Amino acid sequence: MTTINKKPDAIIIDENVDGTCGDELCLRIKTEETIAAIPVILLIEYNDNKSYISHAASKADRLEPRTTDIYRLRTDIHMLINSYLFLAKRTNRMLANTTHMLPEAMEKDEDNLIFINKVRELLENNLSTEGYTIDMLCSTMGMSRTVFYHKIKEVTGRPPVEYMLTFKMERAKMLLKSGRHSIAEIADMLGYCDAKYFGRKFKDYYHICPTGYLKKIEQAPAVNS
Question: In angstroms, rounded to a whole number, what is the distance separating the alpha carbons of residues 204 and 198?
Answer without folding.
Answer: 10
